[in-house]
Model the fold of this input.
Amino acid sequence: MKRYIIVILCGLFFASSAYASYNPSYKKIQAENQQLEKMGKERVCWTKDAYMLGDWKCKREELANKGVTFGATYTTDVLADVAGGKGQGIRYDHSMGWDINFDLERFVGMLGTQFHISGLWRQGQNLSKTVIGNDLVVSTIYGHQQFRFYFLYLEKDLLDKRLNIRIGRIAAGDDFASSPLYGNYVSNAVDGVPISIPINLWFSVYPTATWGVRTRFNLNDDFYILSGLYDGDKGVERDSMYGLDFSLRLKEGIAFAQELAYAPKAGLSSAHLPGHYKAGIYYNGAVRRDLYSDINGSSYAYTGLDSKKHVGSFNVYMHADQMIYREKGTTDQGLTPLTVVTLGPDDLNKFPFFIMSGLVYKGLIPTRDSDTTAVQFVYAKYSDALKKSQESVGALSQEYEIGLEFTHKVIITKWMYMQPDIQYIIQPGGTGDIDDALVLGFQFGLTF
Done:
């Protein structure tokens, strides 16, 4: 049966494929560069200044025009708890990622089809766990400190690009509950996705991929629908497999995601300012344990009995960002407020309520048009059921945790940036037993 399902999916995926010539502009670019060489002038490459290691005499551009693009990035966080927390200290972590993409339309003539593969290498320590004691992790690049395989997927456009399908080893967090604006922050409270969702239930996010299929259907120029179906088994993320657990254990749980988004192509108001508004739900069908009740409805922490089992859990989320001011004569410089809220059942979610609000300004400092300044406020409320369970055995109960951040990304070159960062954690761990923490440091990034 599985074999027939795979055959049908492959047939649907490659339906309407046709063969075409390579990028028609490639020969024109070649001819122009040959002419420049005859005149004794240096070739002009659009990727010339984009990479630290250069363009290798336009070889990267030539490969890109033939359908092959590749790259690597290096990011490091150096952060210090200078006051409060469980103690003071400094920690370093880094993440190096690599990826290769094959545009199969240019590479072999298969219309609207991409093949992508990627991986990473992470090392370092978690300042939040070892020094501060908070759940709103201060470093965005900590997690699975090892060499690790990530993406392996095919992607195809259909219906005149109204429908896009991605299938293979993918992660829900690369499409759902995400926004490019989150990447402006060093804190992991919302980098990628709101941290509440992967804390509450298993939600595949970078650097863990799982088998899945994601579709995006553009209803019109302003609205689109995202749908996703994933293997919901948490075991796929274990470090002992280095991201290479390709098994499909659907009996452990199937995950489903749905998102509706409004992103007006022409922007809002007469100024045509860009904005994004979306709401979604993520459901994972794996077995979950109640945060308070045992099999009889009493506190499992007090009785010592097994906690009550639940089949499946979910989170809903709502996101909005809207540019409210754009500098004259620019397309992307200006001020954009944003906010995201997540909600989930109190008896199954550590953070049944989570909200983040922030401001992002690109080009705030005169003559520094590519730099980005950002602030954020994050509030995470702990579960009342968890609080009752803790109180039943006389333990300190967790109420809430708040994170504040101010950061400024300085674009040094197209391939290098430095990002000084300040974070203030109020009530780390939620109990009030740990002093508020002040975190200072920076993020540094390279594109090879």
Q: What stands out?
A: The helical segments are 2-14, 24-38, 59-66, 104-107, 127-132, 196-200, 300-303, 384-392. The chain has a mean pLDDT of 90. The radius of gyration is 24 Å.
